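Sample 1 of the test manifest.
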Amino acid sequence: MTIRVKLFAAARDAAGKPEVTVELADGATIAQVREALLAAVPRLQPIARHARWAVDSEFVPDDHVLAPASEIALIPPVSGG
Amino acid sequence: MIRLTREPIDTAAMLSQATSPAAGAVVLFLGTTRELTAGRRTVTLDYEAYDAMAERKLTELEAEARRRWPVIECMIVHRLGRVPLGEASVAIAVSTPHRADAFAAGQWLIDTLKQDVPIWKCEHWADGTSEWVHPGMCEPGGPTAR
């Protein structure tokens, strides 16, 4: 399945775009998305080390299994307020 | 009530809406753009959000505050885009029957917002550099001259 990862803040700057697309097998986990993302954009390494992952606007653990058409986002440490 | 806005926050309106005959206490917290941080001078801050998730998280924050305290009104407004010195990036108004709960709820709301809501600020320093603020990271890409 085609997985689009939304990027924000320093992650978007590091990748040079607001979204990165990776191809993974059905039933892929967030851990596999991370691996694929970092292979595609190694500059995201330092950020990914500290970032959380969100699927459909909820934080998820690494072993979360993705459904097709999920909205996935890399969430670097937040700094609102 | 929660809101993301690109306009200056109308804090007087928030206070007015939070005030109610049922409330003995109304607390308004403003997070404002501060000029000095660890000896460096800020010119301005820029905020961005993962809008859909930020709205969901803010909604959850209000719901949790209402579960923990006898909240009468709760308003959380976060501003996005450029927020100049001295202006508010975030405003939280909460009213409760007694003041201990209003202070406690207000404190909890801003503390938790700062941990879990996907909003990020970019510091524009007086020396011409700028960098995203990502607490806990050391120099992810370093400051970038603009």
